[in-house]
Design a protein that fits this description.
Blueprint: E1 7-14, E2 20-25, H1 32-48, E3 56-58, E4 63-68, E5 72-78, H2 84-101, H3 117-129, H4 132-144, E6 147-150, E7 153-155, E8 161-163, E9 166-172, H5 178-186, E10 192-204, H6 206-215, E11 238-246, H7 248-254, E12 258-260, E13 263-267, H8 269-275, E14 285-292, E15 299-300
Parallel strand pairs: 10-11, 11-14
Antiparallel strand pairs: 1-2, 1-5, 3-4, 4-5, 6-9, 7-8, 9-10, 12-13, 13-14, 14-15
Helix pairs in contact: 2-3, 6-7
Length: 302
């Protein structure tokens, strides 16, 4: 997460003139006109010398991040070095919001008209400070419904304690087929409609995705006599993974899983063995769904 307190200035600069169109400065020592002129000069110099686009500049005391667009530059000055990708992404969001708000007169010399962007910027910064897991939880509530639990600690059938990022409890399952109805009455592990969610702030690799999916087979067994801990007794209906992006190896792994109508799933074979079932009822499948985090709404990949 970006520490907003470390951002001392945000400037939006007209590329052509080098003049500041909008600025939010929390450090009195920073002069927006001087800084804008300096940034415009060094970016122009970088292009003329065929050095490529300048995206950051680090001094002993400050770090400058620059996002160049067709007509404007967005500059962020921080007192400490931040995660480059996150700050650069913030700069892009600010630029896009500014261009959307002022599509026609984006480089007008009448800078007073840009003062209304202050409220838009506050919303962007506020959204940036919201923990990623909270953003995902709001999405899960909208997409899947149910009552949410964030970072609950559960006990597996082997007695291991594990933290699940988000669990959505959607109540009782409603099986359509007679056999499935009978199974839900006999075996508790099939009765609840539960969604397990893994939240990955960054690029999800095959290892952590596979580990989370395989973890699903640790649940769905009722508590046995003599056990001192309460095992989470329900096998989830969905195993959902939300990440900012996914490694190509994740798709390769999903291709190895069983599918129904093209949707990957894992069967609760461990429950079958426990319940002495020869074949799995439809309600026992845990479907795998991947979502790539995007604004305004995530993109479903599987």
């Amino acid at each position: 997460m970006i520490k907003i307190a470390d951002i001392e200035a945000i400037l939006i600069i007209d590329i052509k003139s080098g003049m500041p169109l909008f600025s939010k400065i929390d450090n009195e020592e920073i002069d927006d006109a001087l800084v804008s002129g300096f940034i415009s000069a060094i970016t122009s110099f970088s292009k003329e010398m065929a050095l490529g686009s300048l995206s950051s500049l680090i001094t002993n005391e400050k770090t400058l991040y620059i996002v160049a667009r067709q007509k404007i530059l967005v500059a962020l000055i921080t007192s400490k070095e931040q995660d480059f990708e996150r700050v650069y992404s913030l700069g892009i969001k600010i630029a896009e919001a500014f261009e959307h708000k002022f599509p026609e007169d984006i480089t007008s010399p009448e800078t007073e008209k840009y003062e209304s962007f202050e409220k838009d910027l506050e919303e962007i910064l506020k959204e940036t400070q919201t923990p990623f897991i909270i953003k995902v939880a709001k999405f899960i509530k909208k997409e899947y419904g149910g009552e949410l639990s964030i970072t609950p600690i559960l006990t597996t059938k082997t007695g291991k304690k594990v933290k699940i990022d988000i669990i959505s409890d959607r109540g009782k399952k409603k099986p359509e087929h007679l056999r499935a109805k009978i199974v839900t009455k006999l075996f508790k592990g099939f009765t609840e409609d539960v969604v397990f969610v893994k939240v990955i702030e960054g690029v999800a690799g095959k290892g952590e995705v596979q580990e989370f999916i395989e973890l699903m087979q640790e649940f769905g067994i009722k508590k046995e006599e003599g056990q001192d801990t309460e095992v989470f007794p329900y096998f989830p209906s969905y195993c959902v993974i939300v990440a900012e992006d996914f490694s190509p190896t994740v798709k390769e792994y999903l291709d190895t899983l069983e599918k129904e109508d093209g949707k990957p799933y894992i069967p609760g074979t461990h429950i079958n063995r426990f319940a002495s079932l020869k074949t799995a009822p439809d309600i026992e499948k845990c479907f795998i769904e991947l979502w790539k985090w995007e604004t305004p709404y995530p993109i479903k990949l599987s």
